[in-house]
Amino acid sequence: xxxxxxxxYLESTSSSPRLHFPDQAGESHHGIRHGTTIVxxxxxxGVIMAGDRRATTGNIIAQRDIQKVFPADEFSVIGIAGTAxxxxxxxxxxxxxxxxxxxxxxxxxxxxxxxxxxxSLLRSNLGLALQGLAVVPLLAGFDLHHKFGRIFSYDxxxxxYEEHDFxxxxxxxxxxxxxxxxxxxxxxxxxxxxxxxxxxxxxAADDDSATGGPDINRGIYPLVYRVDDQGVHEIxxxxxxxxxxxxLAERKLNPNxxxxxxxxxxxxxxxxx
Length: 273
Fold this sequence. Notes:
Helix content: 25-40%
Number of domains: 1
Radius of gyration: 20 Å
Distance between the termini: 77 Å
CATH superfamily: Aminohydrolase, N-terminal nucleophile (Ntn) domain
């Protein structure tokens, strides 16, 4: 078969008529781990993606330091929410798919091409998704042609949707997106963008029990990546820890407010005096 798609190659050499993820349809959903929440936002030089570290099984915390954000290739990252085992397998297959394409064609797949390939992989999991074993990824990459970061969200059917400026997936996504509405700015530099991502995850964890906030005692903080014209880079754990502790210190003074609200209250108090 003369194809640049590794997934299509697997289908053509398999006795199965099409590619399937490991079949767990006959098993109980009890004990299956789920991961949330992932956020992505554009900033002045590219795009930031961050994920909390908690995985749950029902109402039980199954893992406190799971990885939910992964480099997909040199210029894109993928974050996962939903059934953790299937999601991680999806990430591995997507990584191999992109590497296979580059080796066959001799060029890197475009951002739109990556987004379309991920859609086709999701559609192969539709049967399990309809039985409750859903995978919902978030893709972010740097467009080398247009020179800016791009974000793509998906539904369980493989539907692909380009998002503008910021987005979030997972059980805490509504709270995270609400937070980013106040915190987002395209003018942000890297530390400010990372701070906004970390703070939006904290807001999600504040209202969603399946999302984990910064765990100072265990030294567990969100995993954050940036993608710019230089490629994919993991933000240093030291910077994420410093920004998380700074944010927690400010929230201690105003637990229900953001930095903008604190600043506004300060200005009002100053005017009153």
